[in-house]
Write a structure and sequence with these properties.
By secondary structure, the protein is an alpha+beta fold. The protein has three domains: 173 residues, PAS domain (Beta-Lactamase, 2-Layer Sandwich), CATH 3.30.450; 85 residues, Orthogonal Bundle (Helix Hairpins); 149 residues, Heat Shock Protein 90 (2-Layer Sandwich), CATH 3.30.565. Helix content is 55%, strand content 18%. Strands 6, 7, 8, 9, 10, 11 and 12 form a seven-stranded mixed β-sheet that branches. About 2% of the residues have low confidence.
Length: 482
């Protein structure tokens, strides 16, 4: 398995090498071009100086021409200053004088001749500059600049070529410069690679350690150790810190879900055990004669009531399974929520009358068209109104209202009774949650009604809230205006 560190280091090393290679090649090419051009211009300029001086010296008739000591001293000075070798040749290529400024003897050049192609090019184009060995005259290829020695005839006034001046400069200096550049490049590349390796090691370790901790935590989670958390990333403000924080949040959620699952199983066991124990006890009492015949009818009524309670519990759990199924898709239809609420209210008229409640409605005059599942919202309204009626104080007011704000319709159900404690409000939508008072008042309930309401609203991507102050409890949920 390729580690994240190896991949990151390989990528960083490759980028550094490519960057250094491009920079080194570009710098070397530009430096070579600049230095070579400067050297060529200097050599051509020095060769022209010597050619002009030679032409003037020969025209003046002073001394004995190029064999004169003053002339040779001047040419030797130029050769020494420029670090080059000066060659003077006749038009036929015969070398008549050499002066070396490199510290090496140039006397062996006097026996040679300048190649004819160089003489032709100089005569035709007025000069020539290139890297050459002059047809084997020079031991190695060197930079050679050649210019003609021109003189004017006193008789005809025409200019003619008297000879050729060649400036020779070895290319070893440029080669040495390239070698120095390569050495600097390699040294810099090695230093940067070492620094990059150290930085990459620290960075990769800082990045991969939390990932390894998370992988280890996942393995612990798979073994049922839900208390495991990723630690050491609390002060990080980067993506890894966010991932660790998200992982811990997920772990908290899973822990809570596991606790809720355990509680759900315990609640289901309790809700099933109680009526089944009651049914079994009364049935056995009738069969073995423990219960007198005159009380058998009461026992059968209890058995019937507990049986219906079991049926309601199973039905509610099936509803929950359907609502929470991944295949459950909330139907989106346009319907009038005002009409739906009034229809549910009418269906509960008997219960409202039984508790002597007054109904206070605050509904818009016209239709309020919304998007949603009419059957699901009907169940939401029924559960909320049934709950409100059940826990309303006798002869109090039951409130029902709809308000439109922006793109949302707010449906509220209000009743007057006992205030729900703040610590109960946060748990009121949990499965099988029933307050102590609720357990005494709502003996037929199974603690799933509000959980089903919350599930249906969540499936609609809407929200539901509850408030309870001064004995007035209000449930409010939203729907999107169509």
């Amino acid at each position: 398995m390729k580690s994240l560190y190896r991949r990151q280091f390989a990528m960083m090393a490759a980028l550094i090498l490519v960057a250094f290679l491009l920079l080194g090649c570009s710098f070397a090419a530009l430096s070579y071009q600049y230095i070579a051009q400067d050297k060529q211009e200097t050599m051509e300029r020095n060769a022209s100086y010597i050619a002009n001086f030679t032409s003037s010296y020969l025209s003046s008739g002073i001394g004995s021409g190029i064999q004169d000591g003053a002339y040779q001293l001047y040419v030797a000075s130029v050769a020494n200053i420029s670090g080059s070798t000066v060659i003077l040749a006749e038009n036929d290529g015969e070398i008549v004088y050499t002066a070396s400024g490199t510290g090496q003897s140039s006397g062996d050049l006097l026996s040679g001749r300048v190649p004819a192609d160089w003489l032709e090019t100089v005569s035709r184009e007025g000069g020539r500059m290139e890297r050459s060995s002059l047809g084997g005259l020079l031991p190695d290829k060197s930079y050679v600049a050649a210019v003609p020695i021109l003189q004017s005839s006193f008789i005809t006034g025409k200019t003619y070529q008297r000879g050729v001046v060649l400036m020779v400069s070895e290319s070893s200096s440029l080669t040495a410069m390239w070698q120095d550049l390569a050495a600097i490049f390699m040294l810099s590349a090695v230093v940067v690679l070492l620094l990059a390796s150290a930085a990459s090691s620290v960075t990769s370790l800082r990045q991969t350690k939390p990932l390894k901790d998370m992988a280890e935590a996942v393995r612990h989670f798979g073994q049922g150790e839900f208390e495991t958390r990723v630690e050491g990333c609390e002060d990080r403000r980067d993506e890894v810190g966010e991932l660790a924080e998200a992982f811990n949040t997920m772990a908290d959620s899973l822990t809570k879900s596991e606790a809720q699952r355990s509680e759900f199983i315990a609640n289901v066991s309790h809700e099933l055990k109680t009526p089944m124990t009651t049914i079994a006890g009364f049935a056995d009492g009738i069969l073995d004669g423990t219960i007198p015949r005159e009380k058998e009818e009461d026992a059968l009524r209890t058995i019937s009531s507990e049986t219906r309670r079991l049926s309601r519990l199973v039905r509610r759990m099936l509803d929950l399974s359907r609502l929470q199924s991944s295949e459950n898709v909330t139907a989106q239809e346009r319907f009038d929520v005002s009409e739906l609420v009034l229809r549910v209210l009418v269906s509960l008229e008997g219960k409202i009358t039984g508790r002597g409640l007054d109904v206070d409605t605050d509904l818009p005059e016209g239709s309020v068209m919304v998007w949603g599942d009419p059957d699901g919202i009907t169940q939401v309204c029924y559960n909320l109104l049934d709950n409100a009626i059940k826990f309303s104080a006798p002869e109090s007011v039951l409130g029902l209202g709809i308000q439109v704000k922006g793109e949302k319709a707010y449906v509220s159900v209000r009743n007057t009774g006992e205030t729900i404690p703040p610590e109960e409000l946060s748990q009121i939508f949990d499965r099988f949650h029933k307050t102590d008072r609720s357990r005494s008042v709502d003996r037929e309930g199974v603690g799933l009604g509000l959980y089903i309401v919350k599930t249906i609203i969540n499936n609609h991507r809407e929200s539901i809230t509850v408030t309870s102050e001064d004995g007035v409890t209000t449930f409010t949920f939203t729907l999107t205006i169509a």
